[in-house]
């Protein structure tokens, strides 16, 4: 398969809005009009319940896993091409064609991508996320902290400059997409997570 064609397919898979699809299937309100207005798992969890929140997390992560895993197992794709496919999948979630290019923050989709590119990096980054969440109870702060750590962990465990480049791009975009959360963290108005 042509790498250009697969990059397009990866983007289209990444663009599937799992949170919206699931909440509509179960007769819930439009997630974009409730809570934070975000289409991701955290907002679905808060607005539509734990079950749909977890299902959205799994669905968004699978969007990251499937194209990246296919590319990684295909002998015809180089590490540079795998990195491009991963980035295209991620951009699909952030800028989905199906929603007028207004998507989510990309944390779960990034998780799926990194589960394929560097499972060891994910384990350490998850520990960072969990510790930050446990200490301060902000999902956004945990996500930002894990995103900041993941490129360096990918480089440490995988040693691939291409995977590091993809991880750096994805991490930077995750942090940029959390700019409103960062502002709320700074002024003390960010919602805490209740265990």
Automatic annotation (TrEMBL):
InterPro entries: G3P_acylTferase_PlsY (IPR003811)
One cellular component term from this protein's GO annotations in UniProt: plasma membrane
Subcellular location: Cell membrane
Metabolic or biological pathway, per its Swiss-Prot or TrEMBL entry: Lipid metabolism; phospholipid metabolism
Pfam families: G3P_acyltransf
Regions crossing the membrane: 6-26, 47-70, 82-101, 113-134, 154-176
EC number annotated for this UniProt entry: 2.3.1.275
UniProt keyword terms in alphabetical order: Acyltransferase, Cell membrane, Lipid biosynthesis, Lipid metabolism, Membrane, Phospholipid biosynthesis, Phospholipid metabolism, Transferase, Transmembrane, Transmembrane helix
Keyword Transmembrane tagged: yes
An example molecular function term from Gene Ontology annotations: acyl-phosphate glycerol-3-phosphate acyltransferase activity
BP term (GO), one: phospholipid biosynthetic process
Membrane topology: Multi-pass membrane protein
Top-level taxon of origin: Bacteria
Catalytic activity reported: an acyl phosphate + sn-glycerol 3-phosphate = a 1-acyl-sn-glycero-3-phosphate + phosphate
UniProt subunit comment: Probably interacts with PlsX.
PANTHER family the UniProt entry points to: GLYCEROL-3-PHOSPHATE ACYLTRANSFERASE-RELATED, INNER MEMBRANE PROTEIN YGIH
Record function comment: Catalyzes the transfer of an acyl group from acyl-phosphate (acyl-PO(4)) to glycerol-3-phosphate (G3P) to form lysophosphatidic acid (LPA). This enzyme utilizes acyl-phosphate as fatty acyl donor, but not acyl-CoA or acyl-ACP.
Family (UniProt): Belongs to the PlsY family.
Record NCBIfam families: glycerol-3-phosphate 1-O-acyltransferase PlsY
Protein name: Glycerol-3-phosphate acyltransferase
